[in-house]
Predict the structure.
Amino acid sequence: MFQRVIFVVFSLVFAVSLLGAQNAKEDPVWEEFCLKGEFDLGWRYQGLKPEAGEFYPAEWCVISSKDSPNVRYSGKAYSNPDSESHFTVLYLPPNTVQIVNEGPQPDLLFEGAIIGAESQMIKRLDPRRLAEDVQANPGWVVSRSGNGMIDVRFPGSLFVSTVSIVDSRASSFYTDVDLPLRGRVRAVWEWKSEGEDHGEKAVLTVDGTVIFRASSTRRVLSAEEVTKVFEPAEDEPEPISIPGKAWPSRIAMRVDTVETGVHIIRNVRTGFHHLVVETAKGLVVADAPAGWVEMNQLPASDLVPGMGISGLSEAFIDFLGGHFPGTSVRSVVLTHAHDDHAGGARAFAASGAEIYAPKGSSNFLQISLNRKEMPVDRLSMAGRKATITPVDGRFTISDQYRPVEALTLGPNPHVNAMLGVFLPKQKILFVSDIHVPGSDSPSPPEDRSKSECWFANWAVKNLPQETRIFNSHSQVVTTVELMDKWTASAVCRR
């Protein structure tokens, strides 16, 4: 109830401030700026194939005011080909974030989070807010050139960015970004006005390739609309309070032992779980995690700040070394080529591990993991390269002591080339992304039905009935018996 009172107070203050400002001058205080267009998941290495040209609809909206640090960010976009996400996040600096959920599901309230820099990066998606931020903070300016370009080092950013401001709004924004499987790249935002009544065209290019293109809309919010944005509705359930240190993603590794010598390492970063198997010659690991860089923040930022491209997997390997002293990592199986699951493989190559990947993406990974644009990490300091071994069909990695198999799943709605990790003695399968159960419900969720129904059919046809299925993004363990129910459900029979 205390939080609800706080939000009501916020809302009343916003409404009074807005009315006062509008009485004093014509300029609006609160604006909604939206970009509606399409984003190239293929370029981002999150598509069906790891190549540019796989565009999906994307819409990002920011509600903000130059007179307040508070921001509402919402959107509809595809994080993967099989997954369209609808999201709304309220940033209430200095230390509160609220994920706004639709329907009866309660909101999530992260209290004690350090979000000042993040909320500003979200605000800067609006070129007016970006220009205002630069002009209001002359201490950030590194240099100015005669052609109107301003070099700026934003707080917390590794790189100097360059901004061009025309008529009180940014017209272009240049910055460097470190991305898994790509290394250091040059990202450029450009906004071109189409007239006062027609908004702007926005284009994001990386190393010269267009990855996001959109048209913008802008509107002024009324005092009543501002109140609704920041005040919860009367019939909404109380939000669930979560410690702020969990936002946006944190490293909180712990070991869950499934059977002797078989473990799931939980929360290598928030929501990322990895299979680790002890064998006679060392550890076999499923997937090489990397951080996720938010390209819709200006400048782009990593969900796990300060770790860099290889840092998360390096920390993972160090954790394994501390928990399994005297045992090295023998092999890592990359289930698929999406950058958050394969982008940390350089760390495993530096530790001397073998790297296995689906045949359909092995050549791509061989090239991408050895790009000269990669920042300095353990692999570059050792003067070595990553070598990828392709898997086609079924391949046994370890010996009879505790066999581990890399198992080809085949093309599916999530990605065109994928492996599972199978333990034939224990009847355990580990999969990434294609199966993310929320519960033991007799049918899969509607919003993931394409992938979940595909996987259910595959599992029933290819796995022993008693197989337990672990996954990378949920702590729910399922069985082939449950998959059999899913194939018979109305969701999967459509």
Q: What stands out?
A: Residues 249-434 form a domain with the Metallo-beta-lactamase; Chain A fold (CATH 3.60.15.10). The longest strand covers residues 68-80. The chain is about 25% helix and 35% strand.
